[in-house]
Design a protein that fits this description.
By secondary structure, the protein is mainly beta. Helix content is 6%, strand content 44%. The protein has three helices and 38 strands. The structure holds 2,5-dideoxy-2,5-imino-D-mannitol.
């Protein structure tokens, strides 16, 4: 036992050191979601005998049964939103990957169609992996995707392919053709099994440009390719992005945003003086979604991250369970929409027994924070059409140790929006500089909801059982730094979320770039049976947890607001709604 403790401590120390070794300070997420290209041959073809409903989210995108992962090729075409994702039609673990296809008028209610891409040609015989959609002139969508042509070496020999609709007049785009001149790109020798996930393409200077994720040993790379006709592609001499020590860069994404602090999104090919750019990769080794904001030198085809959001600052879309994200430009509402996948935190055996695994998080609108240093994210407005019964609170004071239960709505399936206020910052705890070196999630582990503080912890207890044997706290804690500034920590802690000992129950955390001048902090959480998806301070920081309570299910779940700091907190406003079930595939 003693030896085991030493080993666990050693592993923790090593994990803490990784960011230092890499000279980065990734906020949390070190090894939080297990890598999954691992094949479970004994599991991957076990069809769901019965789909277990308990814990199955109601309003998050998912198929009726079996496994899903990455969002692929989101787009709008002839009155419909199209969404594709990686899908195992035969079981609840990763494997047998095809492209599931669904359509929607509002990105909330979904109708599933037959899979759009299934392995059928020599150039995708072992899998149709992730890719993106580009709308070519004349309103002609085209998909770029990765085909796996040999099973070995793990995880397969990868090429890039394209597919086009068989019938452009069909708004459902049910049939896709894979032309015989595929593959359009083969890897260079050293990265045959690390060459995948073409991004959406953008157009300038007479060329289409797109990115492909790759690596060279531990150097993560996003290659830039150019084409005049979308079929013959040439690799640029310089990689679009590379970074030592990050490992495979999956699912690169690159898009423009208005720099004027406007919420509207821009078409992927937009250039102009009022434009900033976002570059994102999904890091396979740490399972971190890293993005930077920067400028794009069109003449040189080079992206320059701003020094306010370089890799050393480590911005993340979501400091919890969120991976392989992809954005698209919604031409109807002129917004940039972000999709991300949340894996299960349950065991593989449990997933097989449940008959399902993986969800997509609620699509989020993303835009540039007025500071220009980071993004803001917010659930799409259409989610509000599912709001049912409402509960309202106003000006409820919470002294140290107080909780107040929110009753009268379906709290296991709810949208909760709270604004907390406090009259002073004087009780903020001192921030210890050495925490800078910790993954933020570790700080949330040490400074949990039950650890009394000064200003905070305060927040909500989601999916709580009657006697609090189980609960998932989402909360803030304010620290004061040596230079008289304040640091706001936001945590979503699954440690006590379930009495089931087998589950993976991490504490997640991220700092919030909050302006405390008004002495308020806001929190919105979307609670959906096994999902707690939380937006701090209007989307400055987002954290998603997957949890599997044994007791706090359906009508036996409870919701509280709480304060465990010596400074009194006021719930200035709380609006909470029951959320109805949409049509889901
Ligand atoms: N998932 C896909 C790959 C991608 C990975 C395979 C990211 O194309 O790199 O299902 O989750």
């Amino acid at each position: 036992m003693g030896m085991m403790n030493i080993c666990i401590k050693l592993i923790r120390v090593l994990l803490c050191c990784i960011p230092i070794i890499l000279n980065t300070t990734f906020h949390g997420n070190i090894g939080v979601v297990m890598a999954f290209h691992k094949v479970y041959p004994h599991h991957q073809n076990i069809g769901a005998a019965k789909v277990k409903q308990v814990h199955k989210p109601a309003f998050h995108f998912q198929p009726k049964q079996h496994w899903i992962n990455d969002p692929n090729a989101p787009m709008y075409y002839k009155g419909l939103y199209h969404f594709f994702c990686q899908y195992n039609p035969k079981g609840a673990v990763w494997g047998n990957i095809v492209w599931a296809h669904s359509v929607s008028k509002d990105m909330i209610n979904w109708k599933s169609l037959k899979p759009a891409l299934v392995p059928s040609k020599w150039f995708d015989k072992y899998g149709c992996w992730s890719g993106s959609a580009t709308i070519l002139p004349g309103e002609k969508p085209v998909i770029l995707y990765t085909g796996v042509i040999k099973e070995t070496p793990e995880p397969g020999h990868q090429v890039q392919n394209y597919a086009i609709p068989a019938n452009y007049s069909d708004p459902y785009l049910e049939e896709w053709v894979k032309p015989e001149n595929n593959p359009i790109l083969k890897p260079i020798m050293e990265n045959i099994s690390s060459f995948r996930d073409p991004s959406a393409a953008w157009y300038n200077n007479g060329h289409w440009k797109m990115l492909i994720g790759s690596r060279n040993y531990s150097r993560g790379i996003a290659y830039l390719y150019r084409s005049k006709d979308f079929v013959r592609w040439t690799r640029a001499r310089h990689p679009f992005h590379e970074k030592m020590g990050t490992g495979m860069s999956e699912c690169p994404d690159f898009y423009p945003l208005s720099s004027q602090g406007q919420k509207n999104g821009l078409d992927t090919s937009t250039l102009g003086s009022g434009t900033k750019y976002v570059f994102k990769v999904s890091l396979d080794e740490t399972r971190n979604e890293c993005y930077t904001i920067g400028s794009y030198d069109v003449a040189q085809d080079r992206y320059h991250p701003d020094n306010t959001s370089g890799w050393d600052i480590g911005l993340s879309y979501d400091y919890g369970n969120f991976y392989a994200s992809k954005t698209f430009f919604d031409p109807v509402k002129k917004q940039r929409i972000l999709w991300g996948w949340a894996n299960e935190s349950s065991t593989k055996d449990e997933d097989v027994a449940k008959g399902w695994a993986g969800i997509q998080l609620i699509p989020r609108t993303v835009w540039l924070d007025p500071s220009g240093k980071q993004l803001l994210q917010w659930p799409i407005q259409e989610l509000e059409t599912l709001r049912g019964k409402k509960k309202k609170l106003k000006n409820v004071k919470l002294n140290k140790g107080d909780t107040k239960e929110i009753k009268g709505i379906t709290v296991a399936q709810a949208d909760v929006d709270v604004q907390f206020s406090f009259s002073s910052l004087s009780k903020a705890e001192a921030y210890d500089k050495k925490w800078d070196k910790f993954p933020t999630q570790d700080l949330c582990g040490i400074k949990g909801a039950t650890v009394q503080g000064g200003l905070g912890p305060f927040g909500i207890l989601a999916l709580a059982s009657k006697n609090l044997e189980e609960y998932t706290p989402v909360f803030f804690r304010v620290f004061k730094t040596d230079d008289n500034n304040y640091k706001v920590l936001m945590c979503s802690d699954a440690t006590l979320s379930s009495t089931n000992k087998n589950e993976y129950k991490p504490s997640f955390g991220g700092f919030v770039d909050a302006n405390l001048a008004n002495r308020t902090l806001s929190l919105r959480s979307l609670i959906d049976n096994s999902v707690v998806e939380s937006f701090g301070e209007g989307g400055e920081t987002v954290i998603t947890s997957r949890v599997y309570p044994e007791l706090a299910v359906y009508g036996d779940a409870h919701l509280h607001v709480f304060n465990n700091g010596t400074e009194s907190i006021t719930v200035r406003t709380l609006n909470a709604w029951s959320i109805n079930k949409p049509i889901m595939n």
